[in-house]
Design goal:
The complex is a heterodimer. Chain A is built from 4 helices and 7 strands; from the N terminus they run H-H-E-E-H-E-E-E-E-H-E. Chain A is of the alpha/beta class. Chain A is globular, with a radius of gyration of 20 Å. Chain B is an alpha+beta fold. Classes of the chains: A alpha/beta, B alpha+beta. The interface of A and B includes residues 11, 12, 96, 121 and 172 of A.
Chain lengths: ~200, ~375
């Protein structure tokens, strides 16, 4: 194996979940919604479109066979060209099963319907997600900055086009040609220098 | 108990609402947390929490760090239960990278993690007493035991607070030779300390008057707000990730899950006090089962961790609830996305629901019983 081959990222192994998993329950409850099911390391992943997300989540909470009453976690992910995703980790105390729902949100117009009317836990998580990714949760009662300063409305730190600081060569792998160039680095802060070509 | 106007005078005369600001620098807020209370006389009508003073962008930093470098960040996030947070993070990386830690490392990790739960709960007992006006007494008693545990941690990891001792695949280096004897001694001391706190607070009339029926949370509300850990168990839900979704080697130990009935601040205190004893039970079993010799890292450890592409949401039972680490790997040496689900964050979001209708003084009690770590709320 050549070094280049070793360094190449391993391809994701997409495995369908086994028969009788939560994914089948979802498909039976929502036959007209398009969803892709993958078996993850711990849970079943369901990939849905952002427009269907609210219906899927509402069914997940209220359908007696699903009964996902606990929103474990809600977060955004920036997949660059493929747009954003809002990830919901759900758990059911009644049936003791897990599912992860990944809702795709387009990058140009990042909007998705709020889940705070389904679980009150979503309220703060969605505000944090708006802070970090600029995803607008429609119908949220109070979508104002939570962790970031209240006037920081147009700067989304966790987006991939917003780098931490220019990366230098010694800092592990290069994260792509654009990293360390664009973004919100104030001039004069000491971070607006070009990364050195040969490393320090 | 919500205070409703009783006499005709109270009903007919309108009072002016007053805003009281508590924090961000205030001993009762356990860190930099600010809450604005809208009060009508002594009764809280509305509560506006302000968080984010400690936001350091840890999730962004993790995306720019090697998998092992981000271990230290977990300590700084959950600074009272560092080993619990580290364990969750390394388990997530192990799941992605397919590493299996050796037996001895598993036992070392569980012993330290459970002792950390004990030290964290002692911190809660001490601070909670101080919140209620037992000034100093509960704090010194609780800190006496906490010091024993921290001394042990210092000897093992080299630091009193920021351990960074766990590694994906095991632990960083072996424990001292007299580790088992030290752990047994610390366990004995911790049980004495738990009994002392029990005698000091549990039957104390003032303590009960200040905590019973204060900040009640029903099971349905707790689940809806995403409240986990001792807060959820105090409401009557018998759920513990160590039992219900066993990770690491928790399925080998015999322990009980203390559950409350009322869901008030007193039950939260009782649940945590009992959890100290249950954690000591786990540690005592683990010390007996732990092999004396053996490796602490897998034989074939890669120098650079480069897990295959994929994602995992690992969750562990932190002293405060469910600590979750969601890592997306794209096959590089850094995670593509690293999200920390902090139990304090979710528990704190129920604060307004618990506080409205109580007295101003009870707001401090309820916040104390929530047992938040502000570094973990803001991340």
């Amino acid at each position: 194996m050549s070094p280049e081959e070793r360094r190449a990222p391993a391809q994701p192994a997409v495995v369908a979940p086994p028969e009788g998993s939560v994914a089948d329950l979802f498909k039976a409850a929502l036959p007209d919604v398009e969803m892709t099911a993958i078996q993850g390391a711990l849970d079943v992943l369901l990939i849905v479109d952002g427009k269907d997300a609210h219906r899927v989540l509402e069914t997940a909470k209220h359908h007696p066979a699903l009964a996902f009453d606990f929103l474990r976690n809600l977060c955004g992910v920036d997949y660059e060209a493929e747009g954003f995703e809002v990830v919901y980790h759900l758990y059911s105390y009644k049936h003791r099963h897990n599912v992860t729902i990944r809702a795709k949100v387009p990058r140009e117009d990042p909007r998705i319907q709020t889940a705070s009317d389904i679980w009150r836990a979503a309220d703060w998580h969605e505000r944090e997600c708006r802070d970090m990714f600029g995803i607008v949760f429609e119908g949220h009662p109070n979508l104002v900055p939570l962790l970031l300063p209240e006037d920081m409305l147009d700067h989304f730190p966790l987006r991939k086009d917003n780098p931490l600081a220019p990366l230098e060569e010694w800092q592990g792998e290069a994260l792509g040609p654009e990293m360390g160039r664009a973004g919100h680095i104030p001039p004069g802060s000491g971070f607006d220098v070009e990364p050195s070509a040969e490393g320090e | 108990m919500a205070i409703e106007p009783e006499t005709q005078v109270e009903r007919e005369f309108e009072t002016q609402d007053l805003f009281v600001n508590i924090g961000p620098q205030h001993p009762a807020t356990h860190g930099v947390f600010r809450m604005v209370l809208e009060v009508d006389g002594e009764v809280v009508r509305n509560l506006i929490p302000h968080i984010g003073y400690m936001h350091r962008g840890g999730e962004k930093l993790s995306e720019h760090m090697d998998y092992r470098q981000a271990i230290g960040y977990q300590d700084r996030t959950e600074y009272l239960s560092q080993f619990n947070a580290e364990l969750c993070y390394v388990l997530a990386v192990e799941k992605l990278a397919g590493l299996v830690p050796p037996e001895r490392a598993e036992y070392i990790r569980i012993i330290l993690t459970e002792l950390n739960r004990v030290s964290s709960h002692f911190m809660f007992l001490g601070a909670f007493g101080t919140d209620l006006g037992v000034f100093g007494t509960s704090f010194t008693y609780a800190f006496r035991e906490r010091e024993h545990i921290l001394d042990l941690f210092e000897e093992v990891s080299g630091d009193r607070l920021m351990y960074a001792y766990f590694r994906p695949g095991g632990v960083a280096w072996d424990v001292p030779r007299d580790f088992k004897d030290r752990v047994r001694w610390v366990c004995k001391q911790a049980l004495v300390g738990a009994d002392d706190m029990d005698k000091l607070l549990t039957d104390n009339e003032i303590f009960i008057a200040r905590t019973r029926n204060i900040g009640k949370l029903s099971i349905e509300d707790a689940i809806d707000y995403g409240v986990t850990g001792p807060m959820l168990r105090a409401s009557g839900m018998k759920f513990d990730l160590r039992r219900d979704e066993p990770y690491s080697i928790y399925d080998r130990f015999d322990f009980d899950i203390p559950v409350g009935t009322n869901g008030d601040c007193y039950d939260r205190y009782l649940v945590r006090l009992q959890e100290i004893r249950e954690s000591i039970r786990i540690v005592e079993q683990a010390v007996e089962q732990m092999p004396d010799e053996g490796p602490i890292l897998p034989e074939r450890m890669p120098r650079m961790l480069r897990p295959a592409a994929g994602e995992v949401y690992m969750r562990c039972e932190d002293p405060r609830g469910e600590y979750g680490v969601y890592i997306i790997s794209k096959g590089a040496t850094q995670p593509y996305r690293c999200r920390i689900r902090s139990p304090s964050f979710c528990n704190l979001s129920a604060l307004k629901h618990m506080t409205v209708g109580h007295f101003v003084a009870d707001a401090v009690t309820i916040l104390g019983a929530t047992d938040i770590v502000l570094c973990s709320v803001d991340r």
